[in-house]
């Protein structure tokens, strides 16, 4: 069941990051995809930061979505290092795939995604440590 949850969440993240109409979730329109066989990789380096409400909500979505992904991955392999590595790899891949789907993958989104992953792992470690010190779980779990 843990693997199914991880796969489901990975698909959700992929749809949200690669759908051509990134606002489908707020407009009620079904997501669609547009393939671009020759993407412009220079888009990864653009720094087009906005301060609109919708933009900030999307960045919070990046942060929290990949935090959840990393946590779900940790539940499977029980390794913080592997979970961080594989989650960051998935985050980088989704940003690169966005270029092939007519979206604007950005290096700073990789940083936001990675920050969410690291924050999720730190919170998970703190929660496990606190629970362990209270005696509710053993050290092996």
Automatic annotation (TrEMBL):
Keywords: Membrane, Transmembrane, Transmembrane helix. This is VanZ-like domain-containing protein. It comes from Paenibacillus auburnensis. The keyword Membrane applies. Residues 5-127 form the VanZ-like domain. The chain crosses the membrane at residues 55-76, 83-101, 107-127. NCBIfam families: vanZ_1.
